[in-house]
Structures are given as C-alpha cells and as structure tokens.
Amino acid sequence: AFFTLILYKEIIYMKKLGLLVAMTAALAVTSTAALAKNAPSFDFVSGSYVNVDVDGTHVGGMQFDFSKSLNENWFGTAFARHLSKGELDNTSFAAGFGYKHNLSESTALYGILALVYDDVDAGSLMNDSDTGYGVSAGVRHNFGNSFELDANIQHVDIWEDTEQNYTLSGKYYFTSEWAVKAGYTHVDSDVSMTFVGFSYEF
C-alpha cells in the first residue's frame, strides 16, 4: 500500500509536469542569435537534457525543439519531450505558431499560441492523456554577437488545470551556427525546471 501511495503521488507530479511541459513549446522559440549578426533568429533545431524538480522529486529526460520562420513576422514551432522516473513515463508533444515584432536590431517581442498533447503512463496503475493549449509572451535581446538572453511568461491549460510559468534562458554561440543553451523555469514554490543543451541555427 505504501508503494501504491508513492506511485499515486508521482502520478500527480507527472500530471503537474504536463502543465510545465506544455509551454516548453514557447521555450523552443525563445532564444536564438547568430554570431555574425545582432538580429534574433527563429530558425533552429536543438536538443536538451531536462531536469524537473517537483517538491524535491527529480524527473529527468530529453527534449527536442524546432523553429522555422514563415515570413518576416510569423514563425512555426514544435517540440517533443520524454521524461521518466521509476515506472512512470511522461511523453509530450506541442506545435504552434508565433508572431514577432522587432523593437530594434537586437531586441524582439513575441507571442505564441500552441496546441499541446501530454501522456502519462504508469503501467497497470494508470495510463492517461490529455490535450490542451498554451500561450506565451516574451522579450529577447542579443548582447553583442554571441550571447542572447530571453525572458517570457507562459500560460497553459491542460489536465483540467491552469498554470503560469516564468522562464529565463540564454544561448552562447561558439560558432556562427552552434550554441550551448541553458535555462530555468519557475512554476510555483514546489515545481521548477532546469535544462542544458545544444542548438544549431540554419
């Protein structure tokens, strides 16, 4: 019975992770800058290791992001993520569109609307999924030609609940196409996420 209670507790955690995971579609399009130019870019693919802390319980996994400009202002984005801990697996997908407005050569405002799918599998104990949506708004600024800082707020509605997430992230370009990236997302006093990875701009 004690083990079952632990599993149920982790299932609740995993569903809450869905709220956090959902808006990383926004995260996927919030931090790119070319070494040879100051203007932010929205054309890249990236991969990251993700660590989610839910009230002291750590859940790790991988995430892959994709972003592509459609014209001067509109862009598309998508991401896929898999998290796991013990018997629990959490798989999430998202796809959406965004609009950006350049305030200057090195600063851009943006907004994103995304459709989100989240699946939680705990074997015979639980297997459930849900579909929701998320919106995001933020600002991105390039410092010089190699470093970019991004700050955004995200609202997500999934699993019959809503959350507001706050993300600060950055990239450092060591070539004109390749960068290392890192970021932190705060949901509430119990839930947060950190990530580190690589990004390729095309």
Description:
The protein is mainly beta and 202 residues long. 12% of the residues lie in helices and 63% in strands. It has helices at residues 2-22, 24-27; strands at residues 44-54, 57-69, 74-85, 88-102, 107-121, 127-143, 147-158, 161-173, 178-186, 191-201. Strands 1-2-3-4-5-6-7-8-9-10 form a 10-stranded antiparallel β-barrel. The longest helix is centred in the first third of the chain and has 21 residues, at 2-22. Mean pLDDT is 84; it is low at 1-9 and 25-36.
Short recap of the structure:
The chain has helices spanning 2-22, 24-27; strands at residues 44-54, 57-69, 74-85, 88-102, 107-121, 127-143, 147-158, 161-173, 178-186, 191-201. By secondary structure, the chain is mainly beta. A 10-stranded antiparallel β-barrel has the order 1-2-3-4-5-6-7-8-9-10.
**Which structural class do you get from the secondary structure elements?**
mainly beta
| Overall pLDDT score | 84
Overall geometry:
globular
Strand content: over 45%
Strand order of the largest sheet: 1-2-3-4-5-6-7-8-9-10
Tell me the distance between the termini.
52 Å
Summarize the amount of helix as a percent range.
Answer: 10-25%
Q: How would you describe the oligomerization state of the chains in this entry?
A: single chain
Number of helices: 2
Rg, nearest Å? 17 Å
Uncertain regions spanning at least 5 consecutive residues: 1-9, 25-36
Largest sheet: 10 strands, antiparallel, barrel
H/E series: HHEEEEEEEEEE
Number of E strands? 10
